[in-house]
Amino acid sequence: MFEPARACSQAAVLICCACANIAQAAEAPPEGGAVGTVIVESSVLIEATAHVELDRADIARVSAGTLGDLLTHLPSTKVQMNSRGEQVFALRGSDQRQVALTLDGAPLVSAWDGQLDLGVLPVSAIERVAITRGAASVLQGPNALAGAVNVLSRRALGPGGSDRALTLNAGPHWQAAEAFGGLNTDRHAFSLALGWRDNNGFEPGGEDRLLTGSDSDARSALLGWTYRYGDGATTALTLLTVDGSKGVTPERTNPGPRYWRYPDFHKTMLIWYGKQPLSRGGLDYSLYLDRAGSRIDQYGDDTYGAIINVEDGRDRAGGGRVQWTGEIVAAQDLTLSLHWTHSEHLFRERAASTAFTTFSQVLAQLAAEWRGRAGRWSWLAGGAYEQARNPATGPFPDSGAREDWAATAGLNYIISSALGFDVTLARKTRFPSLRETYNGALGRFVPNPELGPETSHSLAAGLVGSRSDWDWEVRGFVADITDGIARTALSGGQFTRVNQSRARITGVEFAVENELADWLQSRVEGTVLRARGRAADGDYDERLEYRPGINLGAQLLADLPADWRLVFGARHLADEHGLLAGNPVAQRLPAYTLWDVAMERVISTRSLGDFSLVLRLDNLADEYYETQWGLPGPGRRASIGLTWGT
Questions:
Q1: N or C: fewer beta carbons within 10 Å in the chain?
Q2: Is 80 a residue whose pLDDT tops 70?
Q3: pLDDT (0 to 100) of residue 124
Q4: Mean pLDDT, the chain, whole residue set
Q5: What is the rounded radius of gyration, in angstroms, for the C-alpha atoms of the chain?
Q6: Ramachandran angles phi, psi of 484, nearest 5°
Q7: Contacting residues for 585 by C-beta, under 8 A, at least 6 apart
Q8: pLDDT higher for 631 or 583?
Q9: CA 469 to CA 176: how far, in whole Å?
Q10: Which residues, in sequence order, are CB contacts of 572 under 8 Å at separation 6+?
């Protein structure tokens, strides 16, 4: 289940020193106040009071097959399938390109796209996911306007011995399997995770035919090795490889929809990360190499008989992060950080050329951050210099190096053992991705080589607390975005991306968790959001695309006889707008509410290990809904999951 609100609220005092491995810090409570635990993933700082975590139990509970399936159940988050058949998400009204997304401290996104198809990353490779809402730290790296999603690879657990697990999940039109094995010695840990998923597609709500282009298949493997060679010193390697194919759903509301399929996509990452304690400080690092590619076949009609065009893309990237932290005086630390990545994308549209065109991008950041605490107070202040260059721009002119800066400041105060306050102020910049700038998307977009970076000034403040059997948090936030990158509709059903003069996102998010009885728990969370661009008359009344104004969720967990647990949930999204082809004004999407129920049971045996059974029924009412115009989501879906582990 979700990290309890108590862990968020009581941890407000801590701004932890980042590290490249799993680290867990529990500080002594100031003046008798209870303080919880903050978990820091890789070398990205987790904001103590605005984060949530998911682990292997959550993955099993929601029968998640991909990272996107898992993030669907998070507060302040919306996951949708876009017109390219990719699972993408928005966090606090900011899209995936504005959020740092990492695996073991290495960026998962490509410079070509600036985002990752979440359907590519299988949950068989994931041990835990930690999500920071808001621009808490410059140490999140460049382009992190609205927070960070940090994925920790699956590893062997425990100080010794071995771990084994096998999970089978299935529904009427899909099947998935994953296997895991791990071995721990005194100094070494080895792990192997394998995943397979075959999905024939899904039926939209109220329909009895599989949705065209909703099918996919994927295979994955993750190898992990960790070496402990000193007091707190570790080094580790992660090798992840994924390949598969999938369809793309034609947009129902578009008079000229694209008929696409991905006959192949693949991604391979090698990550070397670790930490080295030093006197009065430490060094941590995360270095990586990434190779990826995909092919899109375009067809002339819905018979998918004749290929009329093919788009090939190949990505090569490398870089990393090196970070030093040292104590400057008692209870005060200084962190110096260097980020650097070089990415190259080879692209060809076969109807136009048989030769590949090269595009590339170099991102660099130098950052420093000061953190400290005194009594009930804790704080951080940081700044960074950032630079982006596009050495290769294909047939387009090179705009030259672009330089900018980032800064964050945060303050936390424990009012009492049951109440805490926090405030964060930040300025962040995001440089446009290569695809946003130069790609025509097989005729759908008009490139804009003059597209520039966007800048966000944000402020967030919150109260977190607990009382008796209640844990709660409430937080307000505002982000003022200058030169925000947005798509605009052109004639003939085409689009282009431009820099808006100004945009503003304001919102309030809340969460309440209550133990109603020894056997019954509840959680209610939600976000109320207003995302608007500034019109020519100076008023903020132009709606930003696919930013739900209301995102509410509720969950009820009941322990039943015979060790069964009932999980009943609901999610409601409303006040959301998007561009229809040929219409320059965003149109309102219908609101929808989804109801889910699951039954789970864990059976423990001495000789065979533990068995976990999960029975799920999602979208109970079989409601028809669209997360993006013309792209419906799944209707009623049943699934069964069985996990064995030792």
A1: C
A2: yes
A3: 84
A4: 86
A5: 24
A6: -60, 135
A7: none
A8: 631
A9: 38
A10: 550, 551, 552, 553, 591, 592, 593, 594
pLDDT tens digits along 8-38: 332 222 223 333 232 332 232 233 222 222 2
Residues in CB range of 637: below 8 A, 6 or more apart = 171, 172, 202, 616, 617, 618, 619
Exposure b/e, 500-511, CB count within 10 A at least 16 = b: beebbbbbebbb
Retrieve residue 632's tokens: 């419906």
Question: DSSP letter at 491?
Answer: G
Give the model's pLDDT for residue 158: 65
* φ, ψ at 300 (rounded to 5°): -80, -25
More confident: 400 or 364? 364
* CA atoms of 372 and 376, how far apart (whole Å): 11
Are 83 and 251 a contacting pair, CB within 8 Å? yes
56, 140 Cβ separation under 8 angstroms: no
CA–CA separation, 530 and 517 (whole Å): 36
| Cβ within 8 Å of residue 474, ≥6 positions away | 462, 463, 508, 509, 510
Residues in CB range of 325: below 8 A, 6 or more apart: 17, 18, 281, 282, 283, 284, 333, 334, 335, 336
Decide the pairing of beta strands 445-446 and 23-25. unpaired
The pLDDT, as a whole number, for residue 75 is 66
Q: What is the rounded distance in angstroms from the CA atom of residue 257 to the CA atom of residue 252?
A: 7
Q: Measured between alpha carbons, how far is 305 from 295 in angstroms, rounded to an integer?
A: 17
The predicted pLDDT at position 212 comes to 95
Q: How many C-beta neighbours within 10 Å does residue 588 have? A: 12
> Can you read off the two tokens belonging to residue 399?
């705009």
Half-sphere exposure for 23 (CA within 13 Å, toward CB): 24
The SS3 assignment for 537 reads: coil
Task: Note whether 598 and 582 are within 8 A (CB).
Answer: no
Give the span between the Cα atoms of 426 and 409, in whole angstroms: 6
Kindly report, residue by residue over 566-577, the tens digit of the pLDDT. Answer: 999 999 999 999
Give the pLDDT of residue 47.
Answer: 44
Q: Which residue has the tokens 């709660």?
A: 472
State whether residue 100 is helix, strand or coil: strand
